[in-house]
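Working notes for the structural subgroup meeting. M.R. asked for a predicted model of this chain before we commit to crystallization trials. I am recording the input and output together here so anyone reviewing the notebook later can reproduce the run.

Input as submitted:
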Amino acid sequence: MPIISPFTLYAITWTSIVTFTVAIAAFAPELAFVWSVSPAGRLTNACQFGKVGLPMEGPVWEKICLPLENFGRTKADVFIPPIFAVTVVAGSVCIMRAIGLWEDDEEEES
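Returned structure, recorded in token form:
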């Protein structure tokens, strides 16, 4: 059984934390939207059959009812979330590098 070096364990830990954070950041707004416009949602029940209620900016009870035909999956739904995830992970790695998270490790190796 190979022994994992401390640096590899450290990299795996940070990668896992960043990936989990990106997953929550990416899917939380989508999940909230899906719950609010689901057939059992309060906004949808307040509209006529075949329409979806969307919240307006302002008081909670303000909404607009739109036809169901306006909503559906597009081809961009397949590509945008992975691009967003890669961008966030790359950005967080750059930030960790900029603040010197691995600075001590590099000085010891030199």
